[in-house]
Amino acid sequence: MPVTLRDVAEAAGVSPATASRALSAPDVVAPDTREAVLRAAQALGYRPNRAARALSTGRSGHLCLVVPDLGNPFFAAVAKAVQSRARAAGYAVMIADSEEDPRLEADLVAQLGAQADGVLLCSPRMSATALATVAAGPTPVLLVNREGADLPSVVIDDRDGIRQTLRHLHALGHRRVAHVGGPDGSWSDARRREGLADTSPAGLEVVELGPHAPVFSGGVAAADLALAAGATAVVAHNDLVALGVLDRLRARGVRVPEDVSVVGFDDGPVATLVTPPLTTVAAPLALLGRTAVDLLLDPPDVTPHVVLPVELVVRGSSAQAPADAVAPTTPGT
Question: What percent of the residues of the chain are helix, what percent strand, and what percent coil, each to the nearest 5?
């Protein structure tokens, strides 16, 4: 027979009501009583009945996380951090993959959100109008890696990531850089494109390519376009795209970094598993997930919009521009 709350109460020498408070609202119970209940629950292997708790408290004990693609290491890392932080707070997490489909995103939020105490919507591809509809729903929603609809959010500093990358490449003598953009509807990609115009060093020309799928094949397709544009460096939307670029350049006999430098974004595990190791913008993905859970479960009085810092990690895929690189010309020269 499963261990019940009454069993825990009897083992701890308290009433079932006191045992319930010790497990669900420990701050209102005396420390000695709380410790006795926790020891009894651990010794007996007690697991709370979430369905019963939902009936009595109006809370399900579940959070919902919706991501565009669980096959992408970025979202897998965020999901892992969300799950760990939520578990520590006593919540289970329902994780759903929207397959980069904005219509499916909205459906998943509606379906799973009705069963959850809060929704973490990660890098949503839906329009601003659809996002506003989601925000008007009954379940609290927090945005991860996107801002909008006056919803609480936590994002990484995409603009500064681009700024650091361009300064690095400019210092290495690169004067024509290809930027391989991400998919349509990517909020972070839009911020990076804005940053290209705002932060490009003088004398550096950026050739914008895309949109491209944020996967390996997207980088393979973009590599040919970057070579045709005469770029001596490629900045990819993420590490997966950068790997696709590396693979295509290798197939064409183009040396990295001697002929072309390649820079990724995210600094996932794959960045150090390739040859040469990938120069990339390190995003604090674990911190992103943990912060999102904290803000959703314990929101401050003012709607939070948290921006997390990033750092360029220089490895073997970026180097001095080739000596015979042709600097870009300007009209009239």
Answer: 45, 15, 40
**Going along 227-298, which residue ranges are E strands?**
233-236, 261-266, 279-282
Calpha distance 161→173 (Å, rounded): 19
Q: pLDDT, tens digit, for every residue of 172-212?
A: 999 999 999 999 888 999 999 998 988 888 899 999 998 99
Q: What confidence score (pLDDT) does residue 114 get?
A: 87
Confirm if 287 and 259 have CB atoms less than 8 A apart: no
- Type of residue at 40: A
Closest CA to 146 of 154, 134, 138: 154
How far apart are alpha carbons 208 and 193 in whole angstroms?
8
Q: What is the pLDDT of residue 333?
A: 33
Predicted TM-score (pTM) of this structure: 0.78
Strands 311-313 and 279-282: antiparallel
pLDDT tens readout for residues 90-147: 899 999 999 999 999 999 998 998 889 999 999 999 998 899 888 888 889 999 999 9
pLDDT tens sequence across 231-241:
999 999 999 99
Average pLDDT, the chain: 89
Q: How far is CA 229 from CA 28, 93, 234, 248, 298, in A?
A: 66, 45, 11, 15, 49
Distance from the Cα of residue 161 to its chain's centroid:
14
Rounded Cα distance between 182 and 162, Å, is 14
Residues 6 or more apart whose Cβ sits within 8 Å of residue 193: 179, 181, 208
Q: What angle do CA 297, 305, 63 make, to 5 degrees?
A: 25
**What pLDDT sits at residue 56?**
44
Taking only Cα atoms into account, the Rg of the chain, rounded to an integer number of angstroms, comes to 25
